[in-house]
Predict the structure.
Amino acid sequence: MKGHGKFSVFSIVFGLVYTLAFYFSLALFKYYPLNGQFHIDDQGKSAGPPISWYGWLATALIVSLPIALIVPRKWADRLSPLWAGLTPAILIVAVLIYEKRWFL
Amino acid sequence: MITTILIIHGLLAVALLGAITHQAFSTTKRTPAANRSFIDKYRAVGAASYTNAVIVLFIVTSIGGGLLYPQYRLDVRPTLEDLGLREANGVFEIKEHLAAIGLGLLPAYWVFWRTPLAPEGAVARRYLTWILAFIIWWNFLVGHVLNNIRGLFQ
């Protein structure tokens, strides 16, 4: 199937990078809703609880977008369409396994 | 303002749920017209026409969720911790990760549903659509349970 490659590469890399980013706590920035501020560095307890989700999304986007744009179309189109479907399924299973810590 | 966003977020999620469920069922095997049941008719839709609506609804609903998140982090999550409802925070953590994975897979989902539909993309199309359906159903149900949790677990 021609023309799917770059889109599939983006989706695969985005999911992988997001999952790694949250697993290793690699957020580009954190949002502190108590004072409504974004910070690159961790703030003290007085800043309240942080939200890393926006930062993980941004991390995934800034890695996956350039890769999808740079990868040559010929190479990307060689990727089996199956990987575009399998990768998110594998990532979801990984997330469910990791997050079972909440239920133990 | 938060209540308004929450209601709009919920209504958009209902529309998204309907669209993705129709489309997901349409990727399963069809039966001949003479023997069609209600389920067969349910899945006999022009599935590709749902694609752009699903993408727009998913993005807008996720933005709504992102806007509601600070309030959740400050008010709801500490309440759940005080009530000892650790599992409720767990299902929300899964919800946020699934939303992110769902956002990421939208470009692939779009390209495999691009018309004319490529037969060699059928398996990927089916996988992506059912994965997206799983994500949307999970997030919808978790969102509703968490929204009503004080009434459910008194």
User: Anything to note?
Assistant: Chain B touches chain A at residues 66, 69-71, 73-74, 77, 86-87, 89-91, 93-94, 96-98, 100-101, 103-112, 114, 118, 120-121, 123-128, 131, 134-135 (CB under 8 Å). The CA atoms of residues 15 and 152 of chain B lie 25 Å apart. The first helix of chain B runs from residue 2 to 26. The two ends of chain B are 27 Å apart (CA to CA).
